[in-house]
Amino acid sequence: MAFPSRGLGQDAEVPPARPVPGAGPSGVDRFLSLQLSISLGLSDTELDAMKFLCRDKITKGKLEKVQTGRQLFIILMEQQLIARDKLGFLKELLQHISRDDLLSLVVQFEPGELHVQADQPDEHERRLLKAAFDVIHDNVGREWKKLMRELGLPEVKLDKVEAAHPFNLEEVVFQALREWQKWKGKDAKVADLIKGLRGCNLNLVADKVEEKISQVNTGTK
């Protein structure tokens, strides 16, 4: 059953992020970004269900003060029930409230991102994707996040790309497209990009992609 997104409410202060390997000094901590993405996706009913499941681990007084997912996660971290390398309990909570989409974000975060498909599209499809990426890169602009969500790229990956290039929109668009291709693996198809563009009402860009793909297929420039 789908639930409406909830407001943020009065959040407790989020503890300072620990350094992320490979990230710059101003990089967003991926573990905190994961928690934020999950928190924003929870309805009031789902949060209440998670609190209920934590009753044997967190005191009643603390649970009564929890109004957001982030506040709950802070307590779970303080009590060492979850950590960046200890996600089993968090996955159980999400399984019990039937939020497989949020569970997938946790799986994607886990070390090595073993879920990412190693196989990539064949050579011809890669050429088509490159041509499509060039068109999208030059034309989508600030609508990039809307497109990536339409394509199903997890929010935690969007946050990762945006945090890595906070002042370079062109690079953000390019890296987001690369993340989508890596995430989809051999299933990355230009047809999906065109469908995603039209789903965002970016029909002019979709038309340009189709024109470019036609040129690539016919060997014209």
From TrEMBL:
GO molecular function: caspase binding; death effector domain binding; death receptor binding; identical protein binding; signaling adaptor activity
SUPFAM superfamilies linked: DEATH domain
Domain named Death: residues: 129-213
Chain positions covered by the region annotation Disordered: 1-22
GO-annotated biological processes: cellular response to mechanical stimulus; death-inducing signaling complex assembly; defense response to virus; extrinsic apoptotic signaling pathway in absence of ligand; motor neuron apoptotic process; necroptotic signaling pathway; negative regulation of activation-induced cell death of T cells; negative regulation of necroptotic process
A GO cellular-component term linked to this record: ripoptosome
PANTHER family in the cross-refs: FAS-ASSOCIATED DEATH DOMAIN PROTEIN, FAS-ASSOCIATING DEATH DOMAIN-CONTAINING PROTEIN FADD
Protein name: Fas associated via death domain
Origin species: Taeniopygia guttata (Zebra finch)
Source species taxonomy: Eukaryota, Metazoa, Chordata, Craniata, Vertebrata
Gene: FADD
